[in-house]
Design a protein that fits this description.
Blueprint (H helix, E strand, L loop, with lengths): L1 H17 L2 E8 L26 E4 L1 H4 L8 E6 L12 E9 L20 E5 H4 L10 E8 L8 E7 L2 E7 L7 E7 L6 E7 L2 E4 L8 E7 L4 E8 L8 E3 L4
Length: 244
């Protein structure tokens, strides 16, 4: 009976994720660079970290204090004959940034990312796949989808002697990381805390030790990559582990 209830819960959650929900979308011109080059998730140059041009910043409600970083959404323009492209094609985007609220402007005129609005501030390339660039704002529908990645999880190491940080990118499945553990050859498994976006940290000296990582996604799946970084690793280097 317990197994049946657990399976039923999974089916219900999956069905909920598949449902289209209503939101709005605008775009940032690529000459600005804030969406395609940097972002509040800490990914840095998105092309280098495999997220490319199809990215977006989310309003507070959807961004969820950075927990949605790396997640993938399918988005389509709807209910606007003038601005939506014919047939309402959809595009899959990766969450890489935060769209900050502007409470000095009305929610329906400039304050599009004000809480509790659901809004996507898309890259220009992504927006152009679903709507005319001449539009200021368009109504959209969205739903969560799995992220299709090539290769394994990537771990970029940072910090100092007694402050260790890792940026996790190229995350498949649901794209979101909710828990990380690191292990050196002289330590047990150490839980890391979220610093910001998908940067995780712990106050442990790990230099000179091979490093293993245990990463858990928002779906509850965990993947363990043993001895990803050799004992000779240095800050700033990136290593590839297993994929979900």
């Amino acid at each position: 009976m317990l197994c049946y209830l657990m399976l039923l819960r999974i089916v219900i959650l999956t069905a909920s994720d598949d449902e289209w929900k209503s939101a709005s979308a605008t775009y940032t011109k690529e000459t600005d660079g804030s969406i395609t080059m940097e972002g509040a998730c800490g990914y840095g140059k998105l092309q280098k970290n495999s997220y490319g041009q199809y990215s977006a910043g989310l309003s507070s409600l959807l961004f969820n204090r950075g927990r949605t970083c790396g997640g993938c959404f399918e988005v389509r323009c709807v209910d606007h004959i003038l601005w939506c492209l014919e047939g309402s094609p959809s595009i899959t985007i990766t969450v890489t940034d935060f769209c900050a609220p502007n409470y000095g402007l009305p929610d329906d005129y400039g304050g599009w990312c004000n809480f509790p609005r659901e809004h996507f501030e898309m890259s220009e390339a992504a927006f152009a796949e679903i709507a005319d660039r001449k539009a200021d704002i368009v109504p959209v529908q969205y739903r969560r989808v799995n992220c299709d990645r090539i290769g394994g999880l990537r771990f970029t190491l940072g910090g100092s002697s007694y402050f260790y940080q890792v940026l996790i990118t190229n995350v498949g499945l649901d794209g979101e990381v909710v828990a990380v553990k690191v292990k050196g050859s002289k330590t047990g498994w150490i839980s890391m805390g979220r610093n910001w976006g998908q940067n995780w940290q712990c106050n442990v000296a790990l230099l000179g030790q091979p490093l293993s990582f245990e990463v858990t996604s928002s779906s509850g799946r965990t993947v363990t990559s043993y001895n990803v970084a050799p004992p000779t690793w240095r800050f700033g280097q990136t290593f590839e582990g297993k994929q979900f």
